[in-house]
Amino acid sequence: MGDIAAGLLTGLSLIIAIGAQNAFVLRQGLRRSHVGLVVTICALSDVVLILAGVAGIGVVVDRAPWAIEVIRWLGVAFLTVYGTSSLLRARRPQALAVGSDVLESRTGVVARAVALTWLNPHVYLDTVLLLGSIAGTHGDPGRWWFALGACVASIAWFAGLGHGARLAAPRLSDPRAWQVLDVLIGVVMLAIAVRLALGA
């Protein structure tokens, strides 16, 4: 259960951020436009990338044990930058502006959801490299339980964001809410960086 909880918390910490993908899911939720489709595309894409990252890191560890150390320190560096930038962003909080553009066709919505997911380099850093490297520190079969937790976090987040958008709209219009989120994300990221640096 500890590995699942670690994956769940790490996955949520990485995915809860103001970004193009989340903004798109939120906007579709507020407009109630193809919400289920958008949520499914984003969540399943994350699951595929997370599992690929965990599987790939496992192969690397088996064939080149020294590589995990390189990846681990890359993860430490990335998490440190990620956490620090989140804390700095909290100093100048901004509300998430929801667009009022015309509803897109089903094809247009699918194309945009796929593009925002698969053409975003941060998605690969977060899921394949970062979650994969952190999962590798949990050993076997712990890394797969960690992956399960991360996958559940992704599915729950996108489902909650898309379908709960209208309920959250008043709160998300307040810059203070995003400031609190940025602080929490920054602290968690830096804590994970320290754990990785110490080999935990």
List key phrases describing it.
single chain; 200 residues; mainly alpha; 9 helices; transmembrane helix; LeuE-type; transmembrane; cell membrane
Number of domains: 1
Number of helices: 9
Shape descriptor: globular
Report the order of strands and helices. Answer: HHHHHHHHH
Biggest sheet architecture: none
From the alpha-carbon coordinates, what is the Rg to the nearest angstrom?
A: 17 Å
| Poorly predicted spans | none
Classify the beta-strand content into a percent band: under 5%
What is the straight-line distance between the termini? 17 Å
Total beta strand runs: 0
Q: Round the mean pLDDT to the nearest integer and report it.
A: 79
Query: What is the SS-derived class?
Result: mainly alpha
How much helix, percentage-wise, in residues? over 70%
What does this structure look like?
It is a single chain. With 200 residues, this protein is mostly helical. It has one domain. 82% of the residues lie in helices and 0% in strands. The protein contains nine helices and no strands. Helix 3 packs parallel to helix 5.
